[in-house]
Amino acid sequence: MFTDTHVHLMFEQFEGEVPEVLRRASEAGVGRVINVGCSKKASKQAFAQIEEHTHKYGVEMFSTVGLHPYDASELDEHLLKEWERMIAVADGRIVAVGEIGLDYFKAPVPHDIQKKAFRGQLEFAAKMGLPVIVHDREADEDCLEILDGFPDLKVVFHCYASSLEFAQKLWSRGYYTSFTGIITYPKSDELREVVKECPADRFMVETDCPYLAPQKYRGERNEPAYVVEVARAVAELRGLSLENAEVVLEANTKKFFGI
Prior knowledge:
The chain is of the alpha/beta class. The chain is built from 9 helices and 8 strands.
């Protein structure tokens, strides 16, 4: 069984199709998905979807709460209290805070507001005893500087797309790197080296759907079933059978998310 550790099934691209998407995922060998919140609205929708759909189509669902850096201005004490209430009634189904972090690519939100929201959500994760899913785009060192203030948190850099040198800094801190269909793209040689060098207990896979479909499906809407293609690429790069890669991936996923 594979886990897609990062999906956005609440996005409009999946409207009215979630049952069919989950059925296809189950048929492909995906038994678990983590529905990742990235705004105030999306975090609510992610949890509502797991209550509605989990176990019905052969796929177990979990969710997260968090604000993408582009939505950083939404963070306030009222929202954190709301998330705390959601977690209290979620019976372990809300498994992380994320995706949170910094995004300096075109940066529609000022960097100082992004940083403040990132720190605030890290404090919340520490309070709740939850791991964090980090979004980092063109902000490597600032992300790391802020995270260094929270040494006890479990951290995954999702959709990893930075350098091997930076990945080594993450691994040295015990952080995880999660890989997407980007590793299957023809021009991703440097990223494939990151996959090869990653410690065996520090990687996971995801689709980040509806975005970043693997090369085999490039140009299509991405969906959880396609995470198997990412796992296959990881297996090939690391000289593993798909079955052995599955065992390693599931162990890492369970350890990180506590599921």
